[in-house]
Amino acid sequence: MYQNVRFSEFSDSQSFLTHWFTEYSEFSETMTHLAADFRIQDSFSPAGKFSDFGSLATAVVQILISFAFAISIIFIIIAGIKIVTASGDEKKLAAATGTLTYAIIGLVVTILAFVIVQVVQYLIGSSVAI
Question: Is residue 84 exposed (0-12), middle (13-18) or buried (19+ Cβ within 10 Å)?
């Protein structure tokens, strides 16, 4: 059914294209039947944990917000260590202050992202908990 065919085996491009489209349509039909019978819950166990897209999106948002929050805290700690070890060097102190500023901005953005998700869910009447 599916075989390697060279263009030189055909007398003209039209017969080659006719052959190719015939093979492609058979393949497409086979794949359509396979896709119709496929249930992801049977093959991928985490897929059964989410009843709908909203619960999946909630899990993804929770993971991303938690990750961003943890990274922000880590950078605040790193900035604190840089400030303590700057030893009065203005360049090191300026770099540490910049790191602290951006870490705090990241923390605020993370908290605002969580709050915005909560407000949007309240406004649209969503029952997906975060």
Answer: exposed
Angle 34-38-40 from CA coordinates, rounded to 5°: 150
Which residues neighbour 122 within 8 Å (Cβ) at sequence distance 6 or greater?
none
| Pairwise pLDDT comparison (76 vs 55), residue with the higher score | 76
Separation of alpha carbons 116 and 113, rounded Å = 5
DSSP of 45-109, one letter per residue? GGGGG-SSHHHHHHHHHHHHHHHHHHHHHHHHHHHHHHHHTTTT-HHHHHHHHHHHHHHHHHHHH
**pLDDT for residue 4:** 60
Whole-structure pTM value: 0.57
Residues listed for the chain: 130
